[in-house]
Structures are given as C-alpha cells and as structure tokens.
Design goal:
Length: 296
Amino acid sequence: AGKYDISKLVDKITWSGDTKQVARELSFAIPRMESDKQLPKAAINEGDPVTLQVDGKELFYGVVMDIERNVSSYTVSYTASICAELGVPLGSAAKTGISVYMPCLGKKAYEAIMAAYTAASRRNGNKYIPLMQRDRLQVIVKGTYCGVVLDGGYNLTEATYKSSLQQLVNRVIVTDKDGKTVDTVQDAASRRKYGTVQRVYKQQDDVDNAAEARALLKGLERSGSVTALGDVRAVSGYSVAVQEPVSGLYGKFYVESDTHTWETGKYSMQLTLAFDNLMDVYEIDKVEDKDKSKSK
C-alpha cells in the first residue's frame, strides 16, 4: 500500500504521552457522511501504519489500534500506538558510566531495563526513563531540559497549582522479622510543622533496608498543570521552565503527561507538571554468584 497525506481531511489531531507508559498515542478524527458524495473518504483499517509529521519532522509512528464511528457527529475517530508486547528495537540509551550485573532471564524488557538503571541511579543520582521516539525505544536522563520556556505574558494561557498532604509520611519505624524496632527514619522538620504521620517497615533480606525505609518518607506533594501554545519539544520525561508567579508556578518543572492538540488551525498543549523528579524503580534479582560484573 502507498502513502497518503490525510492532513487536510482531519478535523482534530491529538498526540499524547505519559511518564507511566512508554508508548505515545496518536488520535485523529475524520468527518464521514455516506450521503455526501463530495466529501473525500479515507480507507483506514485496524493495523494500518500512521505517521505524524510537523514542519517536516516525524514525531510519531504507530499502527491503528482502535476505530470508533459516531453517527450523531458524522465522524470516525482513530487511535494509533505502538504495541509494546510486539517488541520494538532499542535506539539510543543514556550512558551511566556504571557497571551492573543483572540476570535478565524471565524478565520483561521494561523491567530488565529499569532494574539496571535503578541500580545505576542509586550510585550516580540521576533519574532515567524509557521513551518511544518514532518506532524505537530510547532511554534518557529523566528531567532533561527540553528548551521550552512557558511565560504568562507570552505563550502560557492557563496555569494551576496544587499542594497536598494526602500521602504524607514523616516517620518510619524499622523492625526486624520478629517485629522488634531496630531503627527509626524521620523528617524532623516535617514532624514539627505537620505533626507525625508514620509507617512501619519490616526488614528484608538482600536489600538496602535503610534506603528502602528512607524511600517511604513522603512530604508535601506539589503539582501543576498548564495550557500553552504548542511546542513539540515539551513531552513527558523532560522538563520545562515556567514563569507564572500568580499561580505560584515559577522555575523548572518536570513534565509527567502531555497532550498536544491541533484543531481548526490552532496548536495548543496541556501539560501536567511535577515539582519532584521521580523514577520508576525496579530491583535486580539476587543471585548466588555476586562477583560478576557486566556493563550496560
């Protein structure tokens, strides 16, 4: 089958991503009225490949997964993505400079990749995230600045800020397997300010129990969301700069989810922002031979 440019037939295009999933998604809608013989028709089926190009740059490659026909609005909506289960080739991978030995047998590709990068992250302090770029899997340093500045006086049209203590934990009691307290980890400043909210952590074999206990500490969660003029560089996994003092959003923020929309000649984007740069953590399975080393 040949390639067809259907951009002039499409009413609305949405290109989106989220740090909680590797694959990005493309959705678009095409008017369809069988009685209108003058209306161009596009024959698109499940499994057909679709690409999105903006200013000559290919941003997305995937296959049509879902088709929905709406009789009342006379439109056909399509959703395309890359199916992770089918396997995708690995593109570039962020270098860590750290050697990690890890048995991968029986692990899913995502788990194996993130377990190796989790081990490296604990030693060099960087955060990592796998992302789809076109039809290849890339691993980047999470929170890398993408170059986008969102300014309330220029390209930022709406901004909100939220803070929450719903997940607060500022004291962790560490116990042995018999339930006896052996250590306590706390955030003293948080306890003075908000009172004590504690959890109990039971020690485990073959893990860094101190690190695991510290990881349970949670402070004030802050998040924001913005609507702005579109910029294809602002995607999940990267960071943006925001200058909007009225909402309290000012500084560097991490893009947790993004939705880019082209409709009626306008291009806008909605971003969910995080104040903290967090990484999806996976542990390496322990094996008896711990003296081996292997570079990623």
